[in-house]
Amino acid sequence: MGKNLTSPLDGDGRRYELPSVASGAVTLRDAPAATLDLEPFRRELTGYCYRMLGSGFEAEDAVQETMLRAWRSVDGFEGRSSLRSWLYRIAGNVCIDMQRSVQRRARPMEMGPDSLPVESMLGPMLPEAVWVTPISDVGVAPESSDPAEVAQYRESIRLAFVAALQHLPARQRAALILCEVLRWQVAEAAELLGTSVPAVNSALQRARATLRHHAADTPLEPLDDADAELLGRYVDAFERYDIEELVTLLRDDAVQSMPPFAMWIRGAANIGRWMVEPGPSGCRGSRLLPTSANGCPAFGQYRIDPAGGYTPWAVQVLEISGGQIIGMNFFLAPLDPERLFPAFGLPLHLDA
């Protein structure tokens, strides 16, 4: 994964540069096909594919397949649209192809009612393909410090929104992402999707109606110094396994989930009772390393390894609003330990 597909040299042995390729303004007629640099588009394509597919792993695979298809067909492309639009068209087709044989991804909260803290049965571990899984902000977040852009990104990549998108038919999903997340003009989206402007407007109207029934109703506010202090207290309480202190950091209606298990818990008091008994007592003595996912603060959780040091256990994605934690999303390492932790820049083992 992540292989650079740029062909570095042109016909006379010199590197060919595309000075404005990242803007999408350059067409394939402007440069020799063998020297075309597609890498500047990887970040935004990954974000598009993630929202389409609901999986960080599948998004990476889809972008890689998009790059490969682009290289295979570049010589036959007529250059009537921008390079950016052409790549998005390929990426959309790749995502639709990938979803034809896969069920809709979801979150535990969509799969059944919440559990009581006295219930000790986690149930079976369901396969990775069942879940909406997180993605690292490193590869998809906008390279901008503008507060409005950052806020828009956080809302458009949060787990609840990505899960809500999975309820839409693929073309409705693509239209909504292009027009309302990426801010494309309706005419641009219609050209990319090979349909008409009225058809895109109709798809957007239906998509918005569906999302009203599924999207989260609590916005994520900008993180500030107080939130940084809150996270510091969370790390301290969790590593000491001081559940009484940890519960004080949660909003009363906070939710905890733990894919690949379908069980989930609602309410700060219930979460606290679960984490003491019959919850994962093996988490005592854990260490947390900071990272970020889906526009939220996140941590790699490492449990004590009987053989020495610490071993990966979960990627925790925390949602914060109003100075309190409203969501604790623990993606347990059995989802894919060899791929999950490295995807967030986290090591596969910590020394004691």
- Largest beta-sheet details: 6 strands, mixed
CATH topology (level 3) name of the largest domain:
Nuclear Transport Factor 2, Chain: A
In the sheet with the most strands, the strands line up as: 2-1-6-5-4-3
- Please tally the helical runs, counting DSSP H or I stretches of 4 or more residues: 12
H-E order: HHHHHHHHHHEEHEEEEH
Structural class: alpha+beta
Q: What is the helix content?
A: 25-40%
The CATH architecture term of the largest domain is: Roll
Gyration radius, in Å: 22 Å
What report would you give on this structure?
By secondary structure, the chain is α+β, with helices and mostly antiparallel strands. The protein has 2 domains: 21-99, Rna Polymerase Sigma Factor, Chain: A (Orthogonal Bundle), CATH 1.10.1740; 106-167 and 214-352, Nuclear Transport Factor 2, Chain: A (Roll). It contains 12 helices and 6 strands. It has a 6-stranded mixed sheet with strand order 2-1-6-5-4-3, sandwiched between helices. Strand 1 and strand 2 (264-266) form a beta hairpin. The radius of gyration is 22 Å and the shape is globular. The two termini are 31 Å apart.
